[in-house]
Amino acid sequence: MNLLAVSGSLRTGSSNLRLLEAVRLLAPAGFFVTVRGPLDDLLHFNPDIEEAGLPDVAAQWRAAVDACDVLLISSPEYAHGVPGVMKNALDWLVGGMEMTDKPFALLNATPPGEYAQASLIETLRIMGGKHLKTVSIEVPLRGSKLDAAGIAAHPEFSPSIRRMFAALEQHSTGVNT
Ligand SMILES: Cc1cc2nc3c(=O)[nH]c(=O)nc-3n(C[C@H](O)[C@H](O)[C@H](O)COP(=O)(O)O)c2cc1C
Predict the structure, then answer these.
(1) Percentage of residues of the chain with pLDDT beyond 70
(2) Which residue has the CA at smallest separation from atom 1 of ligand 1?
(3) How much is the pTM?
């Protein structure tokens, strides 16, 4: 199963990015996790640009989403909303079919963040995505300076990530869709 892991934070040392890297470290056999680079390589979405021909970076972003089996998003909340860079990346997908029936799960490195989570779910759903509730996890890293290896080894955090993979396994076998 190919997982595309995308962080909504551009911050060096981002807890969301460290969480996704920890997910990559803990991936069991048969799971391949690609952590996408920072989303600020995508220019601001503009339908005029899209109509004139997709810029390479936007086309590559769409292709990466298309190629994954499950999209994993870990995003902070800014002022009760989704960070602009994350929403911008999703806007580039609206005109394509990549999200149609695409399973997605949300990770939350800094709960509560419930407004951003709800907004992401709504946006991804209206684009055709299938929310894997049982795969979505909270890993409370607020205030933690642990790196990805430290998160992956942490007695409180690593079990949540392992449960996420177990839920993905169930999803892939159709037990828990
Ligand atoms: C401009 C700004 C606005 C924020 N607004 C919220 C918010 O509305 N709700 C919340 O739970 N956290 C909020 N936070 C805290 C972030 O969720 C927190 O800084 C988080 O660690 C950022 O993720 P990162 O470590 O991956 O960069 C805000 C942070 C910033 C910088």
Answers:
(1) 98
(2) 78
(3) 0.96
Q: Are 7 and 75 in contact (CB under 8 A)?
A: yes
Q: For a pocket test of ligand 1, which of 73, 106, 110 has the largest count of ligand atoms closer than 8 A to its C-beta?
A: 110
For the chain, give the mean pLDDT: 96
pLDDT digit string (tens) for 76-97?
999 999 999 999 999 999 999 9
pLDDT of residue 177: 47
CB of 167 within 8 A of CB of 159? no
The amino acid at residue 30 is G
Complete domains list, the chain, with CATH: 2-172 (3.40.50.360)
Q: Which residue's structure tokens are 């642990």? A: 146
- Burial of residue 25, with CB atoms counted within 10 A of its CB: 0-12 exposed, 13-18 middle, 19 or more buried: middle
Closest alpha carbon to 129 in 46, 55, 68 = 68
Cα 78 to ligand 1 centre (Å): 5
Q: What is the pLDDT of residues 120-132, one digit of tens each?
A: 999 999 999 999 9
Q: Which residues are near ligand 1 (CB < 6 Å)?
A: 9, 11, 14-16, 76-80, 109-110, 112-113, 142
Structure tokens belonging to residue 72? 């994993």
